[in-house]
């Protein structure tokens, strides 16, 4: 009684397919995959990008900003 058999999961899957349809489930999967990829890219941060890629980034108005950062440590 505590565990579900394979037949229970097949019936649940069929009901989900009937309610949502395959196209909507495919779109949800693609959206979820894009969100996971964006999250992984965001977690990498600016430190893991190559210096030439960071240096040549352009702003939204089309102007390129060239910045050199220095690490200043307090001793």
Write the layout of secondary structure elements.
Elements lengths: L5 H15 L1 H23 L6 H5 L20
Write up this protein:
The chain is mostly helical and about 80 residues long. Helices cover about 55% and strands about 0% of the residues. The chain has three helices and no strands. The radius of gyration is 24 Å and the shape is elongated.
Distance between the termini: 65 Å
Q: What's the rounded overall pLDDT mean?
A: 77
Largest sheet: none
Structural class: mainly alpha
What's the short story on this structure?
The protein has 75 residues and is an all-alpha fold.
List keywords for this structure.
single chain; 75 residues; mainly alpha; 57% helix
């Amino acid at each position: 009684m505590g565990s579900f058999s394979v037949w229970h999961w097949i019936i649940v899957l069929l009901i989900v397919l009937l309610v949502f349809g395959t196209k909507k489930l495919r779109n949800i999967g693609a959206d979820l995959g894009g969100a996971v990829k964006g999250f992984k890219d965001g977690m990498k941060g600016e430190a893991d990008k190559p210096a030439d890629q960071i240096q040549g980034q352009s702003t939204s108005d089309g102007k390129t900003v060239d910045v050199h950062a220095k690490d200043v440590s307090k001793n």
